[in-house]
Amino acid sequence: MNQTLVSTRAQIVALLPRLRRFARTLTRHREDADDLVQLALERALSRLAQWRPDERLDGWLFGIVRNAWIDEVRVRQRWNRVLAPGEEAADVGDATAEGIVDRLSIETALAGLPEEQRSAVALVLIEGLSYKEAAHVLEIPIGTLTSRLARAREALQSVLSVTDP
Amino acid sequence: MPFSEETLIAYVDGELDATTQAEVEQALQTDADLARRIGRHRDLRARVALAHRDVLDEPVPAHLTRLLDTDNERRATPVARGSSRASGLRWMPTNAPLAMAASLVLGVMLGWLLPMLSRDTTAEFQVARDGRLQADGALAHALERAPSTTGVGNVRIGLTFVAAQGGYCRTFALEGRNATNGLACRDTSGWQIEALERADATASDEGYRQAVTTLSPALRTVVEARMRGVPLDAEQEQRALHEGWRAPAK
Predict the structure, then answer these.
(1) Residues from chain A contacting residue B64 (CB–CB below 8 Å)
(2) Beta partners for A88?
(3) Which of A10, A145, B136, B189 has the least CB density, counted as fewest CB within 10 Å?
(4) What is the per-residue pLDDT across A3-45, written as a single tens digit (0 to 9) for each?
(5) Given CB atoms, is A74 within the 8 Å cutoff of chain B?
(6) d(Cα B117, Cα B122) in Å, to the nearest integer?
(7) For all residues of chain B together, what is the average pLDDT?
C-alpha cells in the first residue's frame, strides 16, 4: 500500500468542498459545477504521480479544475450553447434573509465578470491563495493577475453598489 | 504620501512588502480618507469571500465520492468480521478485545469522511494552508495534552511512538456516530493526519467498543512501518508531552 498516495487522496477528500465551491464560481451552475469537479478529479487521479509535494495540493487541483473548465467552454462555444450569465442561478441554501440578498447579489455580480477575472477573484478572494500561487495556477504573470483583480474589483464595486459614504 | 489604488488593494490582500505596508499603516494613523479607501476594498473582499459559502456545508454528492472509492477499494484490506487476529501489537494489553471492528479500511474513505468533514465533526480537522489535513478542535487538544489510553470528550488517544524519521506520532479514535481511527504525527505546525480509517459501524451495533490500544491490521501496518523501536511508556510520554512534543534526538 502506498501511504503517500493514500495520504494524498485523504487530502483531496478534505479539499472537495472547496473544489466544488471553486467550480460553482466558475460555472455559475450547480450541476455543471459538480460535473466539472468530476471531470477534474478523473484527470487528477490519472496524474496523481505528477503532483509534487512541494506544490500546494489545492492549487494543483484548482489548476486542473480551471483547465477542464476552459476546455468545456471551448466545446460549448463550438456548439454555441454557452449559458448567458445569470441564466441559471445556483441555489444558495439556508441563510438569513439578509444573507441571501447579499450573497445573491455577490454571486450575480461575480457571474457577470469575464471568465479570466472570475477565476482570479475566485482563487484570491474566495479561496485565499496568494498572488503568486494564483498566478501559478492560472499560468499568468503576477502583473497580469493583479490587473485582472483590480478590474474585477472595480466592476464588482459598481455592481454591488459598495458606495463611498 | 499618496498611495495608488493598486497599492491599497495589495495591502488589503496582504501582499505588500514590509516597507510599503509599514508606510500604509503609518499613514493610516492620521489619514481618514486613506482609511475610508482601504475600508472600501476590505469590505468588498469580505463580501466576495462569502460567495458560494454554502457549498462548503453541503454533503458532497455520492457520485463524486464513489469516483475515488473505486480506486481505493483495490488497496483495501477487508477483514472478516469477528475473526480473531493472530497476534495483537506486542504492546497490546493481553486482555484487549481481539474482536475488533470489522472491515476497517485504511485511507481515503470518501463516503464516510466527506459527510463527516462537512457536518458535525468538521471541527476535528482542518486543511492547512499547504493543503495537508491537520488535527483541529478537540482532536488537536487531546493529541497535544492527553496521556495515552485516556481521552478528552469523544477523542481517545491510543499509543505514542517516535517515528523512524523523527518526531512523535499518536494513534487516536474519535467516538460517536462517525467513529474513526487514525494516526497523527506532530510537526512544528501541529498534528498532521497521516492515516484515517472508519471504525465499522457494526462494532457499536454489537455492543462492543474498539479498544483504543487495539489497531486494525491496516492501521497497524502503517504504525509498524513508521515506528522506531517500541511505543513510549507512560513516563517517556509524559516527558515528551511536557516538552511540547519537541522532536526527539535521532
Answers:
(1) 16, 34, 37-38, 41
(2) none
(3) B189
(4) 555 577 878 888 999 999 999 999 988 888 998 999 899 899 8
(5) no
(6) 4
(7) 72
Are B108 and A20 a contacting pair at CB < 8 A?
no
On chain A, the residues whose CB falls within 8 A of the CB of B125 are: 14
Q: How confident is the model at residue B195 (pLDDT cuts 50, 70, 90)?
A: confident
Which residues of chain B have a CB within 8 Å of the CB of A12? 68, 108
- Counting every residue written for chain B, the total comes to 250
Confidence of residue A58 (pLDDT cuts 50, 70, 90): very high
What domains, with CATH codes, occur in chain A?
A: 1-89 (1.10.1740.10), 96-165 (1.10.10.10)
Q: Which of residues 78-137 of A touch B (CB under 8 A)?
A: 90-95, 99, 102-103, 106-107, 110, 121, 124-126, 128, 130-131
Asked whether the predicted pLDDT for residue B153 surpasses 50, the reply is yes
Predicted pLDDT of residue A37 = 93
C-alpha A84/C-alpha B53 separation (Å) is: 23
- The pLDDT of residue B77 is 34
Q: How close B195 comes to chain A (CA, Å)?
A: 7
Amino acid, single-letter form, for residue A73 = V
Cα–Cα distance, B110 to B192 (Å, whole number): 18
Name the closest residue on chain A to residue B74, using Cα atoms: A1
Q: Does residue A15 belong to the interface with chain B, where contact is any CB pair within 8 Å?
A: yes
Share the mean pLDDT of chain A.
80
Interface confidence (ipTM) of the complex: 0.79
Q: Tell me which residue of A162, A17, A133 sits closest to B116, measured CA to CA.
A: A17
Helix (H/G/I), strand (E/B), else coil: A74: helix
What integer is the mean pLDDT of A120-148? 95
Does the CB of A70 have a partner CB in chain B at under 8 Å? no
In chain A, DSSP finds a helix count (H) and a strand count (E) of 7, 0
C-alpha cell at B156: 481517545
Is pLDDT at B219 greater than 80 in this prediction?
A: no
